[in-house]
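Is this the right way to post structure tokens for a design question? Let me know if I should format differently. Anyway, here goes:
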């Protein structure tokens, strides 16, 4: 009976922010295979597979926990969607899935030769499903932010860009799959890479608009205090992942073009592929520079806050792994594109630091499990109970009284429901 009660308590506390764990773990799996020293070797491939299998287990576990939560409490999904910040983290779901698809192509299929044509087409179908989910997050997430949630500039965090980043991440996976797909169907690969270019364009443009507002928030109100300062690392993810995606898209257009059988002058022109690739490679470097800018702001903000106070460890730290992981992966990729020792060394160092960050966060997360089981009621559960009677009618298109609506903030909702227990400090 006690075991059943404990499991039910854990299941009820399943929140979308947990999907940041597969995101981060998947980025580590990709880094092992891409690591510049020993790249393509059997030991690195095995390490990548270990994290790949771990990531699949985590992904399936959180899927099962989420489904169980919805069975036990069917209204939980709607309640989370109405929350101004928890709802943003539904976007972590498709992004976590893309890391599994990436390694499935690069390591399982390309390196080990497992699966063949049927496996590639299965991954392609799964990618299209991921694109649909990403589109729901991209448009649905921003729609909810505009029409159903109440936000304020002082409480703004970079978590606003999470629904937007889904398109950027899915586009890079599309480019990875297109590389394997063109061995069987150049037409399908071209469609995939074109859709990927469309997605990264939308994602990058909208994210840039949001980050412009975020810079205004930083200038006017300063760096977020306490744990919220970690949100400054999130823009690193969209800038670095967009750069990686753009570079892959350019390389695939170079491989696919010209298509001499096409009646289009653009597709049949011999210089089209090379021109697109040069443009994309240059753009990728410019976006890498933009990512460096965000790293500098994030580190300066972290030092600024640490000088004033200690930052206590919480599960929100998982939000650090994926952005830093994709920046490491991008830097290593640029080392191959430009044959640059500078990028190669920097990418290797940053990859090691990202792995150490993953180990630190994983260790402290494991220490946190007893607290998860023993805490009778979380701060989120208490706040939901206290706001239940005073909340306006959520069925209306807009809040009846904006002053009664809960504002989005990093400390309020970036934190998982059971994340309030502190087990350490930086």
């Amino acid at each position: 009976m006690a075991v059943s009660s404990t499991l039910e308590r854990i299941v009820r506390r399943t929140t979308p922010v947990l999907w940041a764990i597969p995101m981060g773990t998947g980025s580590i799996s990709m880094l092992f295979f891409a690591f510049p020293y020993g790249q393509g070797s059997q030991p690195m491939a095995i390490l990548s597979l270990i994290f790949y299998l771990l990531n699949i287990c985590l992904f399936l576990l959180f899927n099962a926990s989420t489904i169980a939560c919805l069975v036990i409490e069917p209204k939980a999904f709607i309640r989370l969607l109405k929350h101004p910040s928890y709802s943003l983290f539904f976007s972590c779901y498709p992004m976590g899935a893309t890391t599994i698809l990436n390694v499935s192509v690069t390591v399982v299929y390309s390196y080990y030769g497992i699966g063949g044509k049927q496996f590639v087409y299965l991954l392609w179908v799964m990618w299209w499903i991921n694109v649909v989910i990403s589109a729901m997050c991209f448009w649905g997430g921003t729609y909810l932010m505009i029409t159903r949630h109440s936000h304020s500039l002082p409480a703004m965090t970079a978590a606003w860009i999470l629904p937007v980043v889904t398109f950027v991440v899915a586009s890079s996976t599309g480019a990875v799959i297109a590389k394997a797909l063109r061995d069987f169907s150049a037409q399908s690969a071209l469609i995939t890479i074109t859709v990927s270019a469309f997605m990264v364009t939308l994602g990058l443009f909208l994210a840039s608009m949001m980050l412009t507002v975020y810079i205004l928030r930083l200038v006017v109100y300063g760096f977020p205090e306490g744990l919220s300062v970690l949100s400054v690392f999130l823009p690193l993810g969209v800038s670095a992942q967009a750069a990686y995606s753009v570079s892959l898209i350019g390389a695939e257009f170079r491989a696919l073009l010209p298509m001499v059988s096409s009646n289009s002058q653009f597709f049949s022109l011999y210089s089209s592929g090379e021109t697109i690739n040069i443009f994309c490679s240059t753009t990728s470097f410019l976006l890498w520079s933009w990512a460096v800018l965000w790293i500098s702001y994030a580190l300066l903000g972290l030092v600024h806050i640490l000088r004033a106070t200690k930052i206590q460890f919480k599960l929100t730290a998982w939000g650090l792994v994926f952005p830093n992981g994709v920046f490491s992966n991008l830097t290593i990729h640029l080392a191959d594109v430009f044959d640059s020792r500078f990028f190669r060394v920097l990418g290797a160092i940053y990859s090691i630091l990202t792995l150490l960050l993953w180990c630190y966060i994983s260790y402290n997360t494991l220490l946190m499990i007893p607290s998860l089981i023993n805490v009778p009621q979380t701060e989120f559960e208490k706040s939901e109970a206290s706001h239940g009677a005073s909340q306006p009618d959520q069925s209306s298109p807009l809040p009846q009284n904006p002053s009664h609506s809960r504002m989005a903030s990093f400390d309020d909702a970036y934190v998982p429901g059971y994340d309030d227990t502190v087990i350490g400090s930086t």
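Format looks fine. Someone answered above. Worth noting: Residues 213 and 219 are 10 Å apart (CA to CA). The chain has one domain: 2-379+406-414.
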